[in-house]
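job 3f2a | input accepted
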Amino acid sequence: MRVATSVGGVLLAAVLVAGCSGGNSGNVDQGKNGFAQPNQKAKPLAELNVPSAYDPAKGWDATLNWVPGVVRTIPVTAAPRSGVIAMLHAASNGYTVEAKAADTGEARWYSAPWNPPTPVEGAEGNAESGEMGEIPDVTAVEQDGREYVLAYAHGMRGKDPLHEGAEVVRLAVYAADASDTLVKPLREIDVPVSADPGEVRVGSTGGRVLVAWGGNEAFPRSAAAVDVATGRVDSYQKPSGLLSQCATAVACSSTRVMAATPDGPLVGMGTGGFGVPGRWFSDDVRPHGLEAKTGLVGSWNGDAYGVAGGNLLVGWSTGGKFGAPNDPLWSVHDARTGRLRASMTCASDVADSNEARDYPVITSPDGRYLAAGPVAFDLRQGKGICLEGDGDRKTIAVAAIRDDGTAYGAVLGKSAASGSEAVVAELDLTTSAGEPKVLGTGVRVPYLTSVNGSGLFLDRDDDLNVRVSLRRER
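job 3f2a | predicted structure (474 res):
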């Protein structure tokens, strides 16, 4: 697996290690129905160097043998309430979703072969240049108390020598708690899009599925909210007109929909300001003591950074309209209501609203802890932990968080910028300082944590296939 040398690439390298790493892994064979079936012959667990919270000798392994070497996403997800790990397999007659019991690795259900739309031109990527490919993927979502597994892909529907076809993102919706084999989707939903390969994002960080495309990851130009229970699609191709506070073209030049909530789209304005139209606006939930507007042109204060687990992370200017710049204030808000949940000052730079984000926003599975790079919060205690470097101490970017507050992250410095192997640290987010300690070279960071009392790890085996490994907590 080749990864980028940007900060985001360092975080990816911490959870998905490039190249060969030794050990054996459970293989996947083609069954009599023409789709992926697990090999029934037990094999020794792969040898993994995992943090001390996990037992390297207890768990299971599986293999995805079709995933190219240069990709943006890995088709693996977890539906925690249903207790399953879902992954996407490729076969001669389509793709198959396999849902495994998180605790034992036994198959819970298999989907019938699923055929995504024809890939768009350039979706294959370029291994020599490192250009990432675009492949079908899976994600787990919860809506109105029910969990679903979504297989999705970007491509052309109905394109042939006589027809131009239509560009769509196709969602196949499965019940996460399904059973048996040849499970058919509850419904398939095609969302019309217009995007280059790698520009499509699918997520449910606000409570409803959002398909976003165009522009960069922080600022997709267009979006659509999808109700997976009914199949309804609400398109937001011109989000600049959604907020009444968009009084001028300048203020709304790069407005985007950041998440879909049950009450409507969460909208971020290009020069600052955000909210849910007709419900609340950022000036109504501004932390005490901050100016409503900043800068010489008087832009709305508050740059919406990202959303995870129904919470919005925001960076605010504390310098006022003419004052000297000070360390920004970071806050977390309920994405549906705007209610302030926690705040702190931290010297980590707030990216301009139309810039790509260096760090993803992540949460612990139970939603108590939230982080984006060096900015971390305990939302139950309403306090923050700043892990930004201070000249001597290096910056730590959080990559995964357990429910008990144990976090794992990459130590950022000159070695990270040069593309060297990431230095991994373990932190305790229940303390005010995080109390970081460096883990040994080669320690794997979990891709997903607290999966039925276990952690999920991704790697490449000796044959460069993606290996999915669950290791139980001690």
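job 3f2a | Residues 1-10, 16-40 have pLDDT under 50 and may be disordered.
job 3f2a | closed
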